[in-house]
Design a protein that fits this description.
- The protein is of the alpha+beta class.
- Helices cover 28% and strands 34% of the residues.
- A six-stranded mixed sheet has the order 1-2-3-4-6-5.
- β5 and β6 form a beta hairpin.
- The protein is globular, with a radius of gyration of 18 Å.
- This is N-acetyltransferase.
Length: 140
Amino acid sequence: MTPDVVVTDAGQPSDRDVILRELVAYNDAVVGPSGARPLAVLLRDPETAETLGGLWGRTTFDWLYVELLVVPEALRGQGLGGAVLAQAETEARARGCAGIWLDTFDFQARGFYETRGFEVFGSIPGHPRGRERFFLRKTF
């Protein structure tokens, strides 16, 4: 059988699940289980319990990957971003991680991360056009 190659912007969650399952099976066979676990550090409204911002990521292969981190503009300047990141680091250490990695754009928070011990280990100039995307890590 020769499969069709299909390009779509309407892939289904079940399509992603198939791809992920195949990739995880291969990775597990080569290096062992990743130990993947989600991690969220949330900023919540104390009255409504509504999530206002925070951090979303996962620990896998002994590292925490931070996919998303945001403090709403109205709450910035109060140390909340640093507190959220510190809580994530504490949990990453408790899970036995060797460090944290993430990416950010030049118009976002590179300096924020660097003042907290992160270092740039790569970048993509021109992503988006006229800007730059940075990859940072912090090892424990």
